[in-house]
Amino acid sequence: MSTFTAGEELPPLSVRVTRRQLVQYAGASLDFNPIHWNERFAKEVGLPDVIGHGMLTMALGARMITDWLGDPGRLAEYFTRFTRPVVVPDDSEGALVEFTGKVAKVNEDGTARVDVTAKFDGKSVLGKAQAVVRPS
User: Fold this and answer.
1) What is the pLDDT of residues 72-81, one digit of tens each?
2) d(CA 103, CA 113)
3) How many domains does the chain have?
């Protein structure tokens, strides 16, 4: 893809986040906060269950963009706010997180802003998730 078109939709990405992935991500990121692996602790602090790392959810959104671009180096900026946790059950299915994206604006320099939506259980989990991408 060398040029972008406003309104263009990215191929959607659906990912099942499992407890195993949370443990793997914790090891890679060194984020061992017990809300991400200890059900008892998560409930004691008012969460419904263990929750996924916000940065893992954000990274999965970036994966959708870089898969579409075909070159991770073309992702210039990416930012979001975390609006709702992804609750990850203790089963083999995990939590289904669904990502969509759309080119919202093409800039004069050829870069484009991509708006990303991430939903879990039908509700948004990322707020104002946006990326700036470069043409090839």
Assistant:
1) 999 999 999 9
2) 6
3) 1
